[in-house]
């Protein structure tokens, strides 16, 4: 999984894409209306329509409404996701000096721990040698 | 058909190691460590590297790492990168800055607040844009520009935060390592104690048999003793 900042940046980019997708959906699937009584929705001839991708593909009012609603919900979801990601950004309450102090402290602790580990390994090898000596001195029945 | 030109070693699919690896003989390494030890030990470089020795014999020259470059460009997978690549400010990109920059050394809670505000503004501006598109689609451009500015500001603020996150990740990694190292030490210590216990147990078995005067009483007893030892071992390690 990517780090929090990248996740957040990706989420914002997705939001932008959703903006575009929402506008596109509304543009593509809205119903055709007449502005006055004398207007007529132009009927495209069959072969003309087949030649090029139709500009607008109206869907039924219910379906259109549902699509709009879904897109709006997705937008809100993404927004909430973004806000959540913002609030879990790592180290929000640490200042740079805090971090430096912590890194130094950890460095020292690591050195101590490494020293201890080395001692333990040495001790282990000694004991292993002793055990080996004992086992060698024993004859298998 | 022989090629008069030797092939470029850097262009080979599997480049040969650089020629100076031959300088790293045990003798040379010893010589340079002696030379280093003879240098003034108080003059330690800040970055923890051994102090640079200026007049080295030519065969030792490669054992001293060169100074890290301070500026310039480098190539990686055919692309040229700047050694110093600072984040351009919004002013440099001629984008309107929509927030007052948070004072960097203090806490970053302001930053989160600004980010949240920007996120809300994004949504609000999109709502306005849809409104404009519904009533007067010709005037979309201004609103789209606003959205663009908001997005860029958001990304910029996040990119500014990256060094902070990098340090934060470093801290986490160090904590992990510390934890791992301590666990390992603990594990080793435990095993050591168990083995010591085994050895002690073996010692007791032997002593007890010594006490009973079983030793040297023929073959059977020795076999018995051996059995005890193996049983103890098996018990301890099962």
UniProtKB/TrEMBL annotation, chain A:
<comment type="subunit">
    <text>Component of the Mediator complex.</text>
</comment>
<keyword id="KW-0010">Activator</keyword>
<feature type="coiled-coil region">
    <location>
        <begin position="96"/>
        <end position="123"/>
    </location>
</feature>
<dbReference type="Pfam" id="PF11221">
    <property type="entry name" value="Med21"/>
</dbReference>
<feature type="compositionally biased region" description="Basic and acidic residues">
    <location>
        <begin position="39"/>
        <end position="55"/>
    </location>
</feature>
<keyword id="KW-0539">Nucleus</keyword>
<keyword id="KW-0804">Transcription</keyword>
<feature type="region of interest" description="Disordered">
    <location>
        <begin position="37"/>
        <end position="63"/>
    </location>
</feature>
<dbReference type="GO" id="GO:0006357">
    <property type="term" value="P:regulation of transcription by RNA polymerase II"/>
</dbReference>
<dbReference type="GO" id="GO:0003712">
    <property type="term" value="F:transcription coregulator activity"/>
</dbReference>
<dbReference type="InterPro" id="IPR037212">
    <property type="entry name" value="Med7/Med21-like"/>
</dbReference>
<dbReference type="GO" id="GO:0016592">
    <property type="term" value="C:mediator complex"/>
</dbReference>
<comment type="similarity">
    <text>Belongs to the Mediator complex subunit 21 family.</text>
</comment>
<comment type="function">
    <text>Component of the Mediator complex, a coactivator involved in the regulated transcription of nearly all RNA polymerase II-dependent genes. Mediator functions as a bridge to convey information from gene-specific regulatory proteins to the basal RNA polymerase II transcription machinery. Mediator is recruited to promoters by direct interactions with regulatory proteins and serves as a scaffold for the assembly of a functional preinitiation complex with RNA polymerase II and the general transcription factors.</text>
</comment>
<keyword id="KW-0175">Coiled coil</keyword>
<keyword id="KW-0805">Transcription regulation</keyword>
<protein>
    <recommendedName>
        <fullName>Mediator of RNA polymerase II transcription subunit 21</fullName>
    </recommendedName>
</protein>
<dbReference type="InterPro" id="IPR021384">
    <property type="entry name" value="Mediator_Med21"/>
</dbReference>
UniProtKB/TrEMBL annotation, chain B:
<keyword id="KW-0539">Nucleus</keyword>
<dbReference type="GO" id="GO:0016592">
    <property type="term" value="C:mediator complex"/>
</dbReference>
<comment type="subunit">
    <text>Component of the Mediator complex.</text>
</comment>
<keyword id="KW-0010">Activator</keyword>
<comment type="similarity">
    <text>Belongs to the Mediator complex subunit 7 family.</text>
</comment>
<protein>
    <recommendedName>
        <fullName>Mediator of RNA polymerase II transcription subunit 7</fullName>
    </recommendedName>
</protein>
<dbReference type="InterPro" id="IPR037212">
    <property type="entry name" value="Med7/Med21-like"/>
</dbReference>
<dbReference type="Pfam" id="PF05983">
    <property type="entry name" value="Med7"/>
</dbReference>
<keyword id="KW-0805">Transcription regulation</keyword>
<keyword id="KW-0804">Transcription</keyword>
<dbReference type="GO" id="GO:0006357">
    <property type="term" value="P:regulation of transcription by RNA polymerase II"/>
</dbReference>
<comment type="function">
    <text>Component of the Mediator complex, a coactivator involved in the regulated transcription of nearly all RNA polymerase II-dependent genes. Mediator functions as a bridge to convey information from gene-specific regulatory proteins to the basal RNA polymerase II transcription machinery. Mediator is recruited to promoters by direct interactions with regulatory proteins and serves as a scaffold for the assembly of a functional preinitiation complex with RNA polymerase II and the general transcription factors.</text>
</comment>
<dbReference type="GO" id="GO:0003712">
    <property type="term" value="F:transcription coregulator activity"/>
</dbReference>
<dbReference type="InterPro" id="IPR044888">
    <property type="entry name" value="Mediatior_Med7_sf"/>
</dbReference>
<dbReference type="InterPro" id="IPR009244">
    <property type="entry name" value="Mediatior_Med7"/>
</dbReference>
<dbReference type="GO" id="GO:0070847">
    <property type="term" value="C:core mediator complex"/>
</dbReference>
